[in-house]
Amino acid sequence: MDDSDYYPGVLDAVMEQVRSHIGEGRVADYIPELADVDPDEFGFSIATVDGGMYSTGDQARTRFSMQSITKVFTLALVMRGHAGSDVWKRVHREPSGNAFNSLHQLEFENGVPRNPMINPGALIVTDQLLSDTGDAVGELRKLLCEETGDPDLHTDNLVAESESRSGDRNRALAYLMASFGNIRNPVPEVLDHYFRQCSITVSCEELARAGLFLARRGRRADGSELLSVSDTRRILAVMLTCGTYDAAGEFAYRVGIPCKSGVGGGILAVVPGRCTVAAWGPGLDAKGNSVTAALALEAFTDVTGCSVF
Ligand code: GLN
Fold first, then answer.
1. Subunit info (predicted)?
2. 101 CB under 6 A from ligand 1?
3. Atom of ligand 1 nearest to the CA of 198
4. Measured from the CA of 67, which atom of ligand 1 is nearest?
5. Is the full-model pTM beyond 0.95?
């Protein structure tokens, strides 16, 4: 069956599962600016490796805050190999089993975070990207603009300021790591880039398109190499094992493909060799993952049989 005959039926099945749950969960209110988002919004997009785009939900083209989903893209930029990057000496690759902003393990693990998909690990990656390029958020924005084909993607400054005002926990994480010598740039500068990075907005369609290089084994739409095949596979492994924080086991069980969530309510998922899926619903569960986006992805893999297992 042709993709254009197949995916509309998949979208119907996804909506069928999700419809009665729209509005469930709690919008992230620890970042005050995110608390104003309408909890009833929902969007869902599938981007295929050969250029197809299939969307459902009223808000598939509405922009939302990327938040932790940016952690995948900054990691890709660092792994793309700027000279001197020794990022894997500074952050591990193990699931944390703790909340994404927990300080707990850092104190007795010498300021080396468990993985790059949680806040302390992402602060290390941003610090590395800053050392490698001089402008971490600028490089990230450039990558996202190139991959979506939209030159207009940008940071929502109100969200970034709101994050900064309410960002004492991230400050604590960064200074604790700095006390172990694991942050190289001035902490306020790293935090500034991190807050602006998290506050970039995208729609489901844009996010699905931006992530397609991960489904194409590191290749961009024009066939050129963004990341090596091996590094792409490694990023997907980190997404699967760590991308949804202390719910990564639950996501592997329920969804079964690499995912990365953010407290803006978005989730990016990748079916290697085939497609990416972006889902968005602002209501979060207790671990900070979107309730409706998770349900939608679960329905998607159930209906399509897509799984890395
Ligand atoms: N900007 C958010 C924070 O640092 C990102 C967290 C997330 O999306 N899980 O708290």
1. Homotetramer.
2. yes
3. 1
4. 8
5. yes
